[in-house]
Structures are given as C-alpha cells and as structure tokens.
Amino acid sequence: MTPPIAIIGAGPSGLTLGRLLELANISYIIFERDAPPKAGPERTGTLDIHAEDGQLALREAGLMDEFRKIARYDTPTILADSTGKVAITVGGEAADRPEIDRKDLRRLLLDSVPAERVHWNCKIQEVCKDDDGLMSIHFVDGNVESGFRLVVGADGAWSKTRRLITSVKPVYSGYYYLTMGIKKTNPYHPKAAALVGNGTYMVMGGGKQIVCQLLGDGSLFTGIGLSTLPADWDAKAELTDPSAFRERLLQDYFADFAEEQRDLIKHSEGDIYPWPLYDMPLDAFFWKPVPGVTAIGDAAHVSIPSGEGVNIALHDSLQLSQQIVKYGLGGVDQAVAEYEKLMFPRALKHMEAAKVGELLWAKDAPYSFMKAIGVA
Ligand SMILES: Cc1cc2nc3c(=O)[nH]c(=O)nc-3n(C[C@H](O)[C@H](O)[C@H](O)COP(=O)(O)OP(=O)(O)OC[C@H]3O[C@@H](n4cnc5c(N)ncnc54)[C@H](O)[C@@H]3O)c2cc1C
C-alpha cells in the first residue's frame, strides 16, 4: 500500500522527520538520490547541534542518549586574523553546542528508522499533483510513484520538490569553499591539531578563509574559503590535480597569510571538493501553502553556513511532525499551513543572522564581524 507521506531526501531533515513519524506510527517512505553511505573519509566538516532546536528535535526523537555518546562537547571556535593573531575564542563547554561529524549524525538518524523505509538510488525529477488530488513522484529513471497525500521536500538546496511551491531559486552568494583534510598519519597532523584544539580554527582576512575542524576520528577537515570565484567556475577541470591546485592556492590567494596558517593548506591532502555557497533571497522567502506539498531544511531556506542550517532543519522536522500528529492525516494540508506559519519567521531570523556572518569574509575579518556582534 502506498504510504500517505513521501519524504524526498535522506539528509538530516528528511531522516529526522522519518524518525518522528515512525514514533507517531504514521506511515511514510523516504526516497534518496544517492546510494547508501559507505564508510570512508569525511568530505565535510562537523555540525554543532544547538540546545534550543537541534537537540530539542533529537530529544523528541528519542535520540539524545545515543547522540551524547558520539558528540564532542567543549569544542571552542578560535577566530584569527591573517597574521595568525587570535582575535577571539568563542563557544566551549558553557555554550552547549556539541559537535558531531555529519556522517555520524546521518548514521545515528538512519539507524533510528527501519531500513525498508529508505529507498536509495531514487533521484526524483519532479513532483506532480494528479487529477485525483493526490501527489505523484516522477523519478529520473522513468519510474513514477503515485497516491501520496503529502510530499515533503527534504532534498536540499537544489530541491525539485520546491518547484511546486515557489519559483524562487537560491542565488550564488559569491562565497566558495574548497574542502580537503589532514589525516592522523600526516607528519604535520600534530602541529595542525595543536592549532585547532578541540573544535574549530578559522583564520581569515581579505575575503579569504582557512577553516580547520577536528573530526571524530582525530583527523582534521580543512575548508578553504574564497570570495572571488564565479558561480560557473569549472571546478572539475580546475581540481583535476589537487597538489598543483594547493600550490596555486598558496601562491595566488594566500601569499599574504602567515606561514603557520599557510601550512594548513600546504599539508592538506587528497582530493579537493568544491562547495559553492548559495542562499535563498531573503525578500522572496515566502510562499502560500500548497496542498499536498511542503519543504523542510535547506530545500526551504538554504543560506550560507552560519552554524544554524542543520539546527533549523531539525527544528522544521520537529514542527512539521507535531502538526501532522495534531491534525492527523485527514488534516494534513492544515498541518502544512500551520508548520509553514511557524517556520517562516523562525527561519527568516536565522537567515538574517547568517547575513552578519558575511562579515567573516570582509577585508578586515574577523574584526568587523566581532564589532557587529558586540564582542569588540
Ligand atoms: C560548506 C558548508 C558548511 C556547513 N556547515 C554547517 C555548520 O557548521 N552547521 C550547520 O548547522 N550547518 C552547516 N551547513 C548547512 C547544513 O549542511 C545544512 O543546513 C543541512 O545539511 C541541511 O540538511 P537537509 O537535510 O535539509 O539537506 P541536505 O543535507 O542537503 O540533504 C538533502 C538530501 O536530499 C538528497 N537529494 C537531493 N536531491 C535529490 C533528488 N532530486 N532526489 C532524491 N534525493 C535528493 C541528497 O542526496 C541529500 O541526502 C553547512 C553547509 C555548507 C555548504
């Protein structure tokens, strides 16, 4: 039998929603584009999960005990300028913002839903409303699944589901991360680990950043932030020789950074992954409820990283599940309308805060950012 609810995407928001529906005994199915995750190196950094939203959702999902076992507490963020001078250290134990590797959060959530609920290698092309008033999902391979009362787009920044709700698309922010890592076996690892400490080390200035984070296995994630690459930068062609590109980064972009900081690039290893940053235009971030479809997480409100994205996403899943439980499957459209009423102001507040984070790309970063948040 077709379950009443289809969730598109098995990222943090889709899986959390699945888990919450599972607990409420509401049937659902998750369609995910990618193959099941394999063990392997982390190509992204870690996520800090905040008490007021991310942790709240995990608690309601009954996952806080498991989360505590794998999360890292007391993980300060150090902000330094391009000379290497530490400007401020924020966070730490009192902040209650434990870090978890993205892949570990996904594993935690995946293990919390029955395996048969998640259908892998199912890339969706579009979502349609059929003549019977129910929703159908059209897959890239030509398959069609129909008969859903609600389709929830949890399919990230380039959501195909969102098209049914709004024509607004994310726009390139002008900021770009290139990510790589430093393994524990790397001779330079001890030096880099000492700089990074238990959490995150960010050195910045002149529209450039080097972000280094400690991961759960003791290796380090490196993100190189640039603000001069165009949206159509040909990452595939440019990054074919990662060692040569690291050399180019040092010569063409980070020549004015202190040697100790440049070393974080010099000694990073492996492939380099492109991560252009897009965000939804704030002035167009609104839509009227559309029966049968909604969006959560980045599909609804992608913005440049500010430490909030995954937290807002988990909160979306919580609030949507609560409304579905409240109104029941017969009132699912009302549930969506109520969820969206709660989501818009909450997400907008965070998206506006993320804009302040753009000061971390300013010429005199991190000082203008510190001034803006009242700590300098
Ligand atoms: C460089 C960078 C650093 C970040 N750092 C942080 C941070 O420190 N803290 C923080 O809170 N947030 C951070 N974020 C944001 C955070 O990653 C997102 O907000 C979060 O992952 C959103 O979760 P989601 O489940 O909504 O979407 P996603 O994580 O994007 O998951 C979407 C899922 O949908 C699947 N999918 C996509 N298209 C289709 C399709 N057509 N058919 C089927 N499935 C599909 C994808 O494969 C994926 O599994 C960062 C983002 C970036 C880019």
In a nutshell, what does this entry contain?
With 376 residues, this protein is an alpha/beta fold. The chain has helices at 12-23, 54-60, 64-70, 102-110, 189-196, 235-238, 242-253, 259-266, 298-301, 309-327, 332-356, 367-372, and strands at residues 5-8, 28-31, 46-48, 77-81, 86-90, 99-101, 118-119, 124-129, 135-139, 144-148, 150-153, 171-182, 200-205, 208-214, 220-226, 269-279, 293-295.
Fold and architecture overview:
- The protein is α/β, with parallel strands linked by helices and 376 residues long.
- It has a domain at 5-46 and 101-170 and 281-357: FAD/NAD(P)-binding domain.
- Helices cover 32% and strands 24% of the residues.
- Helix 2 (54-60) packs across helix 10.
- The model has no long low-confidence stretch (mean pLDDT 95).
- It contains twelve helices and 17 strands.
- The protein has a seven-stranded mixed β-sheet with strand order 5-4-13-14-15-12-16. A five-stranded parallel β-sheet has the order 7-2-1-11-17.
CATH-assigned fold name of one domain:
FAD/NAD(P)-binding domain
CATH superfamily (homologous) name of one domain:
FAD/NAD(P)-binding domain
Topology pattern, helix = H, strand = E: EHEEHHEEEHEEEEEEHEEEHHHEEHHHH
The CATH architecture of one domain can be named as: 3-Layer(bba) Sandwich
CATH class type of one domain: Alpha Beta
Shape: globular
Largest sheet geometry: 7 strands, mixed
Low-pLDDT stretches are: none
What is the gyration radius calculated from CA atoms?
A: 21 Å
User: With helices defined by DSSP (H or I, 4 residues minimum), what is the helix count?
Assistant: 12
Give the bound compounds.
flavin-adenine dinucleotide
Number of strands: 17
Query: How much helical structure, as a percent, in the residues?
Result: 25-40%
Percent of residues in β-strands? 15-25%
Overall residue-averaged pLDDT value: 95
